[in-house]
Specification:
With 225 residues, the chain is mainly alpha-helical. The protein has one domain (22-221): Arp2/3 complex 21 kDa subunit ARPC3, CATH 1.10.1760. It contains 9 helices and 2 strands, in the order ααββααααααα. A two-stranded antiparallel ribbon has the order 1-2. The model has no long low-confidence stretch (mean pLDDT 85).
Length: 225
């Protein structure tokens, strides 16, 4: 009896969860990765002549483009799921950097002040990013889906630009106010606010051909679309 039981167990099938063949997990991973990298890059203010912005300007517009892909292809519910996941990861990043910052440095470690000067600023940046990100991304997704309900598969350019104009406006105001109010003031702050909004919005317009191709490619490869 015992021998037969062992043989039976040895032939038992090993089970694993089924992995979706869709691209949704990949798009979500890219979306969250771009968000986290942008948050860290935003700790540095950069200046190109009269233009003042932050390091997040390099990648953050791509967060909105990826968000457009999520909303356009997968709908509002799926886009919200990705937005909330990005929110949770941003909070985790802020908490982790804070814990590392307050932990006592080891003997021989001489970069504590440098660490605090750069990543010690991340919690405020993340707070600003979380607030702006949630408002901006949720508005972006909502506006895009609502326009799509009216236009169906037509006028993709209208919902991409329209949703970005609304989402980036809310995001920029909230983020800039929380992150840099009191650090840069007066005309410089207004400059930072306006330039940031125009840059992010115009960049999406410039990248529309690429966004079109990405959305078209994902739609064609998604079995359920």
């Amino acid at each position: 009896m015992g021998q037969r039981h062992q043989v039976s167990n040895s032939r038992t099938t090993t089970h694993f969860a089924t992995v979706s063949t869709g691209y949704y997990p990949v798009v979500v991973a890219v979306f969250c990765g771009l968000l986290l990298i942008s948050n860290i890059g935003a700790t540095k203010l950069i200046e190109f002549g009269p233009i003042i912005t932050d390091g997040g300007a390099f990648l953050f517009p791509l967060v909105y483009i990826t968000g457009d892909v999520l909303s356009e292809v997968y709908g509002l519910k799926a886009a919200r799921r990705a937005i909330y996941l990005g929110f949770a990861l941003a909070v985790l990043a802020a908490l982790t950097f804070w814990l590392v910052q307050i932990s006592p440095p080891a003997n021989g470690y001489e970069n504590q002040e440098a660490f605090e000067a750069v990543l010690g600023f991340v919690p405020r940046i993340v707070l600003a990013s979380i607030c702006g990100y949630l408002v901006g991304q949720l508005l972006n997704a909502y506006v895009l889906v609502k326009i799509k309900e009216r236009t169906q598969e037509k006028a993709l350019w209208l919902r991409l630009i329209g949703s970005t104009a609304v989402g980036e406006f809310a995001d920029t105001i909230v983020f800039c106010t929380i992150a840099f109010y009191g650090i840069i003031t007066g005309g410089e702050f207004i400059n930072y606010l306006i330039v940031g909004y125009l840059y992010k919005t115009l960049l999406e317009v410039v990248l529309l051909p690429i966004t079109y191709r990405v959305i078209t490619a994902v739609k064609k490869r998604e079995p359920s679309y």
